[in-house]
Amino acid sequence: MSLFDLGGKTAIVTGAAGLLGRQHCQALAEAGAFVVATDSDRDTCAAVAEALGKSGIAIAADVTDPVSLRQLADAVRSLTGRIDVLVNNAAINDKFENPAAALEDSRFENYPLEMWKRSLEVNVTGVFLCSQVIGADMARAGRGSIINVASTYGVVAPDQSLYRDPEGRQRFYKTPVYPTTKGAVLAFTRFLAAYWGGAGVRVNALSPGGVENGQDDFFVAEYSRRTPLGRMAAPTDFRGAVVYLASDASGYMTGANLLVDGGFTAI
Questions:
Q1: At residue 58, what are phi and psi to the nearest 5 degrees?
Q2: Residues forming a β-bridge with 58
Q3: C-alpha torsion sign, points 10, 16, 20, 22
Q4: 3-state secondary structure of 173
Q5: Which residues of the chain have a pLDDT value below 70?
Q6: What is the tens place of the pLDDT at every residue in 93-107?
Q7: Element housing 187 (H / E)
Q8: Residues 263 and 22 sit within 8 Å (Cβ to Cβ)
Q9: What is the pLDDT of residues 34-46, one digit of tens each?
Q10: Could you give the CA distance from residue 41 to residue 31 in angstroms, rounded to a whole number?
Q11: Among this protein's residues, is 252 annotated catalytic?
């Protein structure tokens, strides 16, 4: 079990205030790492760090701003002297403020260019910049693990029938940008793994399945029905995978995509 021990290591988690970001922070801290919880909102990431006690700290940063990320990296190195793990978790998953307009706005033919550009900026450029700024420090140190959080929708296309209620009415469509950006994250993961393999930095992706989080009952039931394990994921279901990818337990693993999806992509 010592292979999973992260004692003495420093981990940065972006999007730390999100549903899964909080879990990633907790898992890494429980494995012994000192965790830097990073989010664009200072107050929310401070609340995450507070829950970690002495095992973590909050430093707000904008993943789309290289100056902000350099300040983050410098602050972490000044504090702990090292960066061992980077979890690129920050991402946008489209939500439509007006439920009445969601169906039409989410159609591919109507999908707003502004939403497309914003998701590309955060979900793809954000991963690129965090890896470029923070990962470059890891490469210079000759060690590290980068974990890019992707999605099953980076592997398979969205099943639009999941968003259809029991009366057969399409509530909305899963939009094109989330699968596109998560597919890009997987390609970028392979690129970076090959590029930094000789520098001692491992780069892997973690692709979570759908997480139960207050969705309509019909969606939860239908998603569970088409998943071999018969349920959606709980937010805690990815803790072990994050620790595994961050630790020496996955020491001969790079350029891989670890699917933790209850078998969703197996059928």
A1: -105, 135
A2: 37
A3: positive
A4: coil
A5: none
A6: 998 878 788 999 999
A7: helix 177-196
A8: no
A9: 999 999 988 999 9
A10: 26
A11: no
Contact residues for 44 (Cβ-Cβ < 8 A; gap 6+):
17
Catalytic residue selected from 178, 195, 244, 252: 178
> What is the structure's pLDDT at 187?
98
| Fold (topology level) of 2-262 | Rossmann fold (3.40.50)
pLDDT score at 101: 87
Q: Count Cβ atoms below 10 Å from residue 117 Cβ, excluding itself.
A: 11
- Domain coordinates in residue numbering, the chain: 2-262
What is the rounded distance in angstroms from the CA atom of residue 69 to the CA atom of residue 63? 7
| Pair of tokens at residue 203 | 């780069």
| H/E segment holding residue 36 | strand 34-38
Residue 20: phi and psi, rounded to 5, are -85, -30
- Tell me how crowded residue 71 is: count the other CB atoms within 10 A of its CB: 16
Give the residue among 266, 261, 242 at the shortest CA–CA distance from 151: 261
Calpha distance 193→196 (Å, rounded): 6
Tokens coding 161: 């029938």
- Strand order through the sheet with 34-38: 56-58, 34-38, 10-14, 85-88, 144-149, 201-208, 257-260
pLDDT of residue 1: 86
